[in-house]
Amino acid sequence: MTNSVMNEKLLTEHKISVLLIDDQPMVGEAVRRMLAEEKDIDFHFVSDPTIAIPTAEKLEPTVILQDLVMPEIDGMTMVKFMRANSKLKNIPLIVLSTKEEATTKAEAFALGANDYLVKLPDRIELLARIRYHSKAYINLLQRNEAYKQLLESRDAMRKELAVAADYVTSLLPLPVAEGEIQADWRFLPSASLGGDSFGYHWLDDDHFAIYLLDVCDHGVGSALLSVSAMNVLRSQTLPDTDFHKPDEVLFALNESFQMDQQNNLYFTMWYGVYKKSDRTLTYSSGGHPPALLMNGDEVAQLRTPGMIVGGMPDMEYTSDSITVKPGARFFLYSDGVYELKKVSDGKMWDFESFVNFMASTTGPLGSPIDMLIGHTKELQGREEYDDDFSMVEFVFE
């Protein structure tokens, strides 16, 4: 990940800066002397009101002191101009007047002034108000800066997740449109990228391996663990493991990917081996939803008891098998394809309804998955999924 995402930037430190706008140089000198000993305060003075606004835009002070009685421009009009200016509208504005008048105060506050002082104010009171208003404005600047950094980090994170999703997708197997076993799939990563991955390949001329795993949590870390596990399956590099035996594969994965060594991440898993010569599918699962085999008129849910992979060492896994009829359809998926909230009543779509829907699907290879995607998007009333949508369909000739 980029440093902009991983490392929080420090917020800008702002020094108190005062701009006094008053046509009387003697007032400017008096205020300058009041602030001269304050090393943390920069003081600026403008006696010509016609250049006050461009000067303020250039200096970006943390507080503006402005006289209400000036030649060439009315002080109240100047307040209006300040508040209409996009660069100056949030800078604290303290108006200075020679009179303590309630109506003048009310008008100044109505136009956007933040405070009112009768000049020349007491030095202690002036400093207190300058520091009070400057602190509030600096806090606003830093809050806005932090929010901007948050947006930038979020955008950078989204780009990182998009790159990670593209990487995961590039490792997935190509669809198979012809042959004894045909395969097609859909992988729709969620906005925060989960840990789904899957694969299939021939172990030898008679055995075809099928697998899908789903890492808990979301983000790049989950995706990397998923890819690591998929790579050892694809390369068959688990030690002392017969990849023709699903229970051995899950046992070896559990020993190799213990969660205390994987940043407390674990995954669910379904692994099966189809034997072409006798049309048997042997399978084992660990905490994963059952695969669905549309075997003629029968809908078989293929799942064995077994804990999540990586939860505890020395866990035992079991295998089961089923005969696959010619023309059977087989669906392997993650729970993100059916665990969604219906927009109609706010309730979760139940698993039985999902199974019934898949049993009703028809059409060429891949069409049932597309039908499911269309149906689930309609159910939840939006295009995006909260979890990865991963489903693989196989047809056994």
Automatic annotation (TrEMBL):
Keywords: Hydrolase, Phosphoprotein. The modification 4-aspartylphosphate is found at D67. The keyword Hydrolase applies. Residues 17-134 form the Response regulatory domain. PROSITE patterns: RESPONSE_REGULATORY (PS50110). GO terms for biological process: phosphorelay signal transduction system. Pfam families: Response_reg, SpoIIE. InterPro entries: Bact_Sigma-Reg, CheY-like_superfamily, PPM-type-like_dom_sf, PPM-type_phosphatase-like_dom, Sig_transdc_resp-reg_receiver. Signal peptide: none annotated. SUPFAM superfamilies: CheY-like (SSF52172), PP2C-like (SSF81606). GO terms for molecular function: phosphatase activity. This is Response regulator receiver domain-containing protein. The lineage of its organism: Bacteria, Pseudomonadati, Thermodesulfobacteriota, Desulfovibrionia, Desulfovibrionales.
